[in-house]
Write a structure and sequence with these properties.
Shape: globular
Radius of gyration: 19 Å
Number of strands: 9
Order of helices and strands: HHEHEEHEEEEEE
Number of helices: 4
Strand content: 25-35%
Helix content: 10-25%
Amino acid sequence: DYPIDFGWDKEPSPLFDFLARKSVLFEIKSAAQLTSADLEKSNALVVISPMSLTAEQQEMIRNYQAAGGGICVVGAGAERADFGVRGSLPEISADLLVNAQVQTQVLTKLKSLVPEGPWIELGGAEHVLANLTSIGGGREVVLHLLNYAPKPAAGVRLTLSLGTKLAALAGKEPMLISPDAKSAPLDNVRWKGATLEATVPLLPVYSA
C-alpha cells in the first residue's frame, strides 16, 4: 500500500525521517485505509505516487481539496496528477537529509499547504525535536522540546510562527519550564509579528 520505497525489505523514503527531524507532525496512512473522516481531521495531505490510487481514492481526495484541504503530490506521476495542487515534489532526493537547499524547497512547499497553521523551526541542535500543543481553547500553547542527543544541547535557536490560528497569542512573554530544579530563562526573545524568536540556553539529555 506504500508504493514509494516503503517496506521492511526496502530503503525507507527520506521524507519521513526529514519531517520528524523538522518537528512536522504527520501520520502515515495506507491509501486503502484512508477515509473521508481521516481527511477531515487533517490540515494537509501529502499524496505519495498518485498514479497508484484507485478512481474512488482520487475522488475522495478531490472532495477533500474542494473543501479547502491542502495537497502536495510526491513521487512517480506527481507531474501528471490531476489534483490542481499548489505544490508538487516529483522526486524526493536521496540526499534530502544533508542537502540544505533541497530541505528549504520541501519545507517551503509543505508550508504553503497550511499558511494559517503554526510552524516550528529549530537551529543549532540536530537531535532536538519539538511538539506544539494548544490548551485552554487556544488561549495558550505549550511547546515541548526533547533532546535525543547523547549530550546536552546549548544555544538552541527557536522560531515559532503562530500563523493566523494562534496569532492572538503574539507578543506574550514566553515561559521556560524544565524538570530541572533550576532552569535559565530564554535568551534573545523577540516577536516579529506573529513569529517568536528565542534561544534556549541549555537542553539536558533525558532518557526513560
